[in-house]
Protein 1
Amino acid sequence: MLFWHVGATTAFIRYAFRDEAMDLRFLALGAVLPDVIDTPIGFAFWPSFGSVRLASHSLLFATLILAIVLVTTRRGRPRKRWMPLAVGVLIHLVLDGMWRAPTTLWWPFLGWEFAATSFETVPDYLGWLLTDARTWILEAIGAAYLVVLARRSDLATPAAQRLLLTSGRVNAPIGR
């Protein structure tokens, strides 16, 4: 779910931290990173795993990302730029409700297996995913927030687009 993860993560973090200078590019990358890594692997090895939520959907992965950011950056601007990546990964786990799959969330501390779905094949899983009303509703909510943010940021203008692409910022004040 692309729009749900990017939209909900951006909305939650913007209003929780109230940091208008946060680099939303790294936040969005973190918001989708577990799916970008695990989905192709899960599809390729479906008979072994039976899921697309694998190691990147674990707290170990989120902790490793955070540790890498902390070890490779110094306080100040570089760390502030990269920290949203780790935050986005953590929020991804929350939005996926990973507490319902503790063997994956706590992997490898509860064992080396990942929580499998009830679907036998990738086409079965994709068929469910594409027809699941909850999935479409969440995608619509995320997309709606992103559209509102884009309009409030005037992203139709080249200057606003350049600001987003070069700094990851948008010109949309965070309401109180």
Protein 2
Amino acid sequence: MLFLDELPEFNRRTLEVLRQPLEDGSVTISRAKTTTKFPADFMLVAALNPCPCGYRGDPRRECQCTVPQVEKYMGKISGPLLDRIDIHLEVPAVPFRELAASRAGTSSGQMREAVLAARIRQAERFAGMPTRANARMNSRQIREFCRLEPAASELLRAAVADMGLSARAHDKVLRVARTIADLDASDGIGCAHISEAINYRLLDRGLWL
């Protein structure tokens, strides 16, 4: 796992270098007389503020950033790099009443059981194939294993048109939706699964503006 905090503060050229290993799981280094490929299969987790000052959207503090400043800040992350990141989520501040609440949420044990069950479904799906997880499905496997119900297909079509999703982002939505359906113990991919996967593409929807 590679964790990058304050993602837009990294040099843009450095971030662009991540595109190849995120796509291929390897790094290729070329010199004058030779080319060498190294394994680089990792999970990227990145965090960033919503704006340079960090207070945009905060109900308790006033953001001092202008729209051009926010655009410049977010513009350091290119579209092709965002395309290669499966999930974009906003994590708002947790209100005190939730921090102090006694009601328990989903426990780590329950989450582990759900993940293991989804992993078993994936192992059965890809039995005899080099692919081991939904995230590594190629285009042929996506067409085979991510068949949508008619209403879900229409929902995805509308999202691609409205959000201007690239072909790569379209496939990311399908892979994530397939995993959501696995966690739901569902063989098919329905509207709820596609809708949730689309909502995980926050930065594609331009909601940071």
Protein 3
Amino acid sequence: MTLELKSIFNNQLNQWVIEVQGEIDVFTAKDFREELIRTYNEKQENIILDFGNLNYLDSTGLGVIIGAYGRMKEQGKEISIKNAKSNILKLMTITGLDKILIKSNC
């Protein structure tokens, strides 16, 4: 159960990209939440979560994403997901989150 996070600000697009590698579960969700908060507080712009190297996401991780989505939406900002693997896409589809978090033009 490991998690690696790399936050990069894209000046051209004026948005964050957070590359997520490993697993987001009950053991790593706190680190994920803290990185989202730290990144957003540094520069309050849209965030794209690059899940290309994310192997697992549980309900705790979903809760972190939903919480960030709500806070950012209140401020007119968006959080979205790109490059999600099939197991993550399935979870997003089952929960209906694919309609608000999965963007094809990220």
Protein 4
Amino acid sequence: MLYGPVGITFDSYRGSYTTTCHMLNCYWSDRWYNLEVLWYADWQPRSHYVNIATPATWQDQILQFVDLDLDVIWSATTDDIMLDDEDEFIAHQERFGYPDDLITQAQQTSEAVRTMIALRRYPFDGSLYGWRPHGTT
């Protein structure tokens, strides 16, 4: 797990940005997704942002995973569940030569995540919204 407070600057392939939300990032070595739990600056719940990705590895003090483009977003304010970036997933299948089994795994995982959210199964039961870093209220 990694915590990022409001005001952290990140660099990504989409450019630099500064966070306006609190973020708790959860990574697993046996799941084909990772999770960002997001709060607004005042700690009101914002969303669960799920990256469909290869299982995470930790080697030489580096966290690694491959983001497979598909994202599932569960809004805390509207309770909507959205599948995002399907267009990127399709484009990258050809560009990067995703094998059929990887495509199937990503699609099945995105469906499983949406089902877990609908059924409110941990970590998609809303309980992580109660988390705070030590010393924060």
